Amino acid sequence: ECNKSVETSFGITSKTDLAILADKPYVIRSGRESIFSKSLLLSLDALTIEQLQNPVTITVSPGEKTVVFCSVYDPATYRVVDFSWSGHKEINLQALEERVVDKISQITSVNQGQNLAPTQIMGVVKNAEGAALRTHMMAQIDKYITQLGWNTEQGRNYLQQHYQKNSRSQLSDTELLDFTFRVMEMAGIVQDVYQQTSSLMDAKAS
Predict the structure, then answer these.
(1) Count of domains observed in the chain
(2) pTM of the predicted model over 0.85
């Protein structure tokens, strides 16, 4: 999700969120105008839809002061995706965001149409592993709902409002993944990638 308005201790700011399904659900968040977001979007823009249907590797590298870099590795060659960084300050960010969102939306549409988890579409996991991952997401949701203080009725109302379903067991794999990310967001689990990298650097320094 691009150009997302998020309330922080400094007020309302724009963020870029990338939802990822790996060993468990993750959300990579960074400032919309940050070097990390731009390098992430440029890398994803350079990959084709076919390439994005395979698992990719995303790395985070701290630069000087507040700069954090992002590198995406091509799933076929295992090499860093090459893109033109020149003129990144004058880049049409909105157009770039729209291209990447459209590309990912096309992949998501395929997932929803076939009622398969993204990792199954990509061939990353087998059915048994997909079932285990679904169980893991259910457990994660339980934890976040407890943090939110929701009761059963509140959870059911949310599912009916957003998915027209009465229980989590009725959700498709794609819907369950989306619900997991939503409760993560509401529980305040999602953090800015710079905050996480800074914490890691501080820990190493100490």
Answers:
(1) 1
(2) no
